[in-house]
Amino acid sequence: MKGFIPDLLDEISDILNVTLVLDHVADWKFGTQDTLGNWNGMIGELTSNKSDIAAAALTLTAERSRVVHFSHPFETVGLRILVKKPSMDILTKLINDDAGLFFRPLTLGVWMSVIIGFLVIGTLFYIIGRFSPLQDQSEGGILWALSVTCGVISFQGARHIPSAFSARVLVSSALLFTLILVSMYSATLVAFVSAKSSNNNALPFSTFRGMSLQTEYQYGTVAGGSTYKYLTTSNGETERRIAMYLKENPANLMMSTAKGVSRVKQGKFGFILESASAYHASASSCDMMVVGENLRERTYNFACRQNTNICDQLNIAILQLKMNGRMDELKTKWWSGKCGSFPRQQTTDGETDNTLSKGTQLDMKRFTIPLIMLVIGIVMSVAILLMEIYLPKVAGQLHTKRTSEDTQGFSGQMHA
What we know:
Blueprint: H1 4-16, H2 41-47, E1 53-54, H3 62-65, E2 69-70, E3 75-84, H4 90-97, H5 108-131, H6 142-153, H7 165-196, H8 208-213, E4 218-222, H9 226-233, H10 237-248, E5 253-254, H11 257-265, E6 269-274, H12 275-284, E7 288-300, E8 303-304, H13 310-323, H14 326-334, H15 368-390, H16 392-415
Parallel strand pairs: 4-5, 4-6
Antiparallel strand pairs: 1-8, 2-8, 3-6, 3-7
């Protein structure tokens, strides 16, 4: 036999210097109790003295601990949901499911500030073209103001450099504002798309609660196992809703984990199982993934026949394997695959370990500095415009000096 459990038993047998003979239980069950108090599966094998150790992804429960002994845990796990990866193009799904996605990077306040800012810029360009004595009147007017404003918004600048110094200051300030706006918007949009195109959000649910409230996907678990027992006895609202669904849909109760994984591969089905088994399945088959928060944390343990000290000996071996790092090596070997590695530290927030952080909208607080810079540019432009109107001599001298410098620079470039 090959697998994590056989390799772990080989390591244990070497440490304890014993020989362990592996055999599959006839009904392929972990162990449940019927109404008469009789146990089936591996627990039944122990209670009937047919086996000494139950070695599997076996979880400790109060009912089982009354009839068998349990060793120290060799892994801590929780419940997760195994699903098939959606084949639909992510971008198409994002557009269909969220038509307003491209407006979400900015809050309403920021959008209003940007719109008002460009309206003010366009109006000021018109005023400069209309009243500044230094602005070429052949370029002034509504069309010119609209052309310059559109050039700034599209980050193309003005087709012709304005002759008025006030207009040049305004163009420079507006272009700097647009550059910062586009950069911040692009970064935020990438974060939003990355978050929405992550594995969890490509599905109609990403948590157990979300799964229990939707109708697009069916879901189930192993019939009669500890997971089913937990769901049907828990007082949690989500667990009770899932338990009611499972009772109404008995066809979704699988006879084994393998059958559940096979059902997942058919699509539109979520299989509830321990996280270790879920990650192992998803790492081995690239068309599946794991979602859901780490529900009901519990442990994997060996079970031993009562009236023996077998579990005490197993505890010594398990502790030694954990201390020398061999346990982690076995997990990496068997719980990882061509499609990924089993995470040593699992999260409990409903996201996989390598999921990107969700996008956060760009609000007024984060957009304060660009707005202040734009306001400063507008104020400077207005101040220079007033100087051009009411102090024409001073403005004319500045204009002449500036024009001369531009001409020299241009001539120098031609000469070079």
